[in-house]
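User: Sequence in, structure out. Go.
Assistant: Echoing your sequence, followed by the structure tokens.
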Amino acid sequence: MMRDGYVARWQGREYQVSPDGDHVRIYQPEPADGFEEVRPGRYVRVVPAGEVEDLAYVRTTCTWQGQPFIVLGEHDGWLRVEYTGGRWPVAQAMGLEVFDFGVYQGWAPAGEVAELREQRV
């Protein structure tokens, strides 16, 4: 699974989370005591920030065509990637879309990416 977002341990289990001041929203895909359904397959519980441990931001990185990227998502054998090399001529030559000033994104065939790894930042 490609992850890009906050994670934390709560009561011995790692969850996808969203920090919110003095609280943390904890998400999981199935119902459980204290969790409220926010949409089908997505349940949330708000807990005090002091109750969570090991809060970190996790992102998946890779290389594609020898260039560095972060992986934002995946769909049907393709990875949504964002170029982190910072060089416009390289991004342009690769056919990446200008998403924002200095931000270049595109779709890479999953079979063409290398060095997929998860990093905690």
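User: And one key feature?
Assistant: The chain has two domains: 5-57, 58-120.
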